[in-house]
Amino acid sequence: IGDKKEIKIKISVADDPNYPPFFNPRCYIPPRTRNTTDIWPLMGTLHSLLGYQALFTDRKRGSRSAMALDNDRCDVKVYSIVKGDSCDYYIPVGTTPTFSFGCTNNQTPRRSTPTLKPYWNASYDRPEDSAINPLWFVDGKKKHRRHILTEIRLKDMITESPSVYECTMDLQAPNIGIKASMKFSVEAIGCHDGFYGGNCSEACVCQNGGSCHPFNGACKCPDGWKGRACDIKDPKVVMSPTYQNVTSGQTVRLSCEV
User: Fold this and answer.
1) pLDDT > 70: what percent of the chain?
2) Radius of gyration of the chain from Cα atoms?
3) Which tens digits make up the pLDDT trace of 128-168?
4) Dihedral sign, Cα of residue 78, residue 79, residue 83, residue 89
5) What phi, psi does 87 have (nearest 5°)?
6) For residues 192 and 8, what is the distance between their CA atoms, to the nearest angstrom?
């Protein structure tokens, strides 16, 4: 039979700090009610001198853009890749444009303002984020000299009502110059019932009427249930006052059925 060999395997088990996921009520969005093909839980609209366009829907640019969600801090990031002959012409290789972008918000409560950061040479200079697909920077038969990655970020987002911003942008490059003012709005539309995530493609596990958070799939369980998926019974005594409310100091008798 031959010589026997002994292999020793050491297994270390550690808690995952992100499990179970945290349900953050500040940026919770109910399941989507409108009939739309948009796959992102947020809808952005840009009004400017360049026209009117949907910015955060990802309906047609799913292969070259992505949304990353941070539930704990209610942060949102949108990455989008831009490449083509126009980029190669307007921003020649070896040059770095000057760029500025700023927004204000006058709503109550005040909303944190978005930031827009371009990475002009993203094929080798870009942030480390799992939402960024390396295939975005692989060209086909047509080779491009420049791949531009844009990062739009919203911190501590409020989702209960649309956020509206007044923004200005200034771009100066060797073969192009743009100065523009625009109104920019972001509306939380949520995912279809039973799904969550930046692309609304992850399946929720919440049972027994639990609410699924669209950012990370965390469950908020109704009374009587607990656990990651609201699948563990948690008996509780719940008092629902009627018109004759119990007053302070009054003696009451409770009858419970088990």
Assistant:
1) 84
2) 25
3) 998 899 988 888 888 888 899 999 999 998 898 999 999 99
4) positive
5) -65, -40
6) 48
Q: Is 56 exposed, middle or buried (0-12, 13-18, 19+ CB in 10 A)?
A: buried
User: Which helix (H) or strand (E) covers residue 88, if one does?
Assistant: helix 85-90
Mean pLDDT by 10 residues, the chain (258 residues): 76 77 91 74 72 46 76 88 88 92 93 94 91 88 87 91 93 92 89 91 95 94 94 79 65 68
Token pair for 39: 């796959």
What does the alpha-carbon distance between residue 92 and residue 254 come to, in Å, rounded to a whole number? 79
Alpha helices for the chain (secondary structure H):
85-90
Tokens encoding 123 = 């094929």
Tens of pLDDT, residue by residue over 24-35, are 998 999 998 876
174 upstream amide cis, omega within 30 of 0: no
The percent of the chain in helix, strand and coil, each rounded to the nearest 5, is 5, 30, 65
The pair of three-digit structure tokens given for residue 99, joined into one six-digit string: 């760029």
Residue type (1 letter), 258: V
State which amino acid sits at residue 119: Y
Residue 90: what residue type?
Answer: Y
Q: Which amino acid is at 103?
A: C
The distance from CA 22 to its chain's CA centroid, rounded to whole angstroms, is 15
Is there a contact between 194 and 41 (Cβ–Cβ < 8 Å)?
A: no
Q: Is the dihedral of CA 47, 49, 54, 55 positive or negative?
A: negative
123/139 Cα distance (integer angstroms): 11
Name 215's Cβ contacts closer than 8 Å, sequence gap at least 6: 24, 27, 41, 69, 70, 71, 74, 196, 197
